[in-house]
Amino acid sequence: MSESVCRWGFLGTAAISRKVWKAIRVSGNGRVVAVASRSAARAQEYIDQCSAEVPAAAAQEPVLAIESYQALLDRDDIDAVYIPLPTGLRAAWVIAAAKAGKHVLCEKPAAVHTDDLQAMIDACTAGGVQFMDGVMFDHSERMREIHRSLRDDSPIGTLRRINSHFSFRGDDTFQQSNIRTNAQLEPHGALGDLGWYCIRFTLWAANFAMPTHVRGQTLTALRGSDSEAEVPGEFTGEMRFADGLTASFYCSFLTANQQTATVSGDGGYVTVDDFVLPFYGAESSWRESHNVLSIDNCRWNFSEHTTRKSVVEFSSGESNAQEVNMVRRLAQAALSNTVDTFYPELTIKTQKILDACRRSDASAGKWIAP
Ligand SMILES: NC(=O)C1=CN([C@@H]2O[C@H](COP(=O)(O)OP(=O)(O)OC[C@H]3O[C@@H](n4cnc5c(N)ncnc54)[C@H](OP(=O)(O)O)[C@@H]3O)[C@@H](O)[C@H]2O)C=CC1
Ligand SMILES: O=C1CO[C@H](CO)[C@@H](O)[C@@H]1O
């Protein structure tokens, strides 16, 4: 690599990529070099908007607008690509990126099927490039500290139950025209968009153990006006683990904003009120009353016999850091040309559980081995 910063290219002009652009800007080890769109004018408009949000970057170096995803991949001045294209298009473009030798940050849900995802990851392995999905909470310092606490000398004892809920209420325009209700583009609907996080949280809390059995059910199906089939608009799932641990989750495009997750043990529980998208301006100092410790939107509840000695007092003010950490990690892999298999393996586990949820849903809620 010729530079000490990772040179990023973006495929598409997705709404989410504006956040990722900003994260790259402050990451310290990357810069956006080019944006490809199906329309050159749209790419330029997008670049102008993002540049206006970070004027210093615009003054430093111009970003190229390219009217073809493949033309961006063919460039040799790009090290890593961000792929937030709709899920139905990802397999083809991740494989093309890997063949072009680009490291890949791929949005979630990663793929339509595990088979597609395996082909995507195999292509990345063959190309010697990193594959990472776009789940940001994996990179949050706050969540990493909670994870360490749960693993080492857990203050809530032996884990018994994991519950997670991620929902927002989409209006009529959302339901009719957003990619999330289009079966060709986002076939998993709310399960892919929101349930992916619940599945990932469950894996994360279970210290990345796979459940032995999974079942799922679409509670409400939706169909976008430009789609030929329905997608899950509201979905619920359950998981069983070998050691008696169980989990449930709920995700929905019909229920008001909520992103709450709770891990319960035989000695207490911890609840995170904002496990996916940390609230901005969140409470940053911890409060203690009786046996409850509240810190950075997490509440730890202890029974009498536990102490809070192993709850790490993580620092405040990091609610915006998860996306920065994510792009910084991918850039580190690109800059050092090393591949961390942890991330693709975690994505495969998440996808296998999602696939099992869909299979269970299609067979009247039967328990399925993922
Ligand atoms: N990790 C996270 O925190 C987040 C992840 N996401 C994920 O990112 C993905 C994108 O979401 P979002 O930003 O809302 O999506 P958008 O609808 O804003 O963007 C999708 C982009 O894909 C490109 N595209 C290519 N082909 C098509 C097509 N046939 N129809 C529509 N778009 C197409 C378009 O770029 P162009 O026309 O310029 O080529 C478009 O801008 C989703 O899968 C979502 O789950 C979303 C938000 C947050
Ligand atoms: O990944 C995402 C983050 O959360 C949003 C909901 O608030 C999702 O719609 C989006 O796709």
UniProtKB/TrEMBL annotation:
<feature type="domain" description="Gfo/Idh/MocA-like oxidoreductase N-terminal">
    <location>
        <begin position="7"/>
        <end position="132"/>
    </location>
</feature>
<dbReference type="Pfam" id="PF01408">
    <property type="entry name" value="GFO_IDH_MocA"/>
</dbReference>
<dbReference type="GO" id="GO:0033712">
    <property type="term" value="F:1,5-anhydro-D-fructose reductase (1,5-anhydro-D-mannitol-forming) activity"/>
</dbReference>
<keyword id="KW-0560">Oxidoreductase</keyword>
<feature type="domain" description="GFO/IDH/MocA-like oxidoreductase">
    <location>
        <begin position="149"/>
        <end position="270"/>
    </location>
</feature>
<dbReference type="GO" id="GO:0000166">
    <property type="term" value="F:nucleotide binding"/>
</dbReference>
<protein>
    <submittedName>
        <fullName>1,5-anhydro-D-fructose reductase</fullName>
        <ecNumber>1.1.1.292</ecNumber>
    </submittedName>
</protein>
<dbReference type="InterPro" id="IPR000683">
    <property type="entry name" value="Gfo/Idh/MocA-like_OxRdtase_N"/>
</dbReference>
<dbReference type="InterPro" id="IPR036291">
    <property type="entry name" value="NAD(P)-bd_dom_sf"/>
</dbReference>
<dbReference type="Pfam" id="PF22725">
    <property type="entry name" value="GFO_IDH_MocA_C3"/>
</dbReference>
<dbReference type="InterPro" id="IPR055170">
    <property type="entry name" value="GFO_IDH_MocA-like_dom"/>
</dbReference>
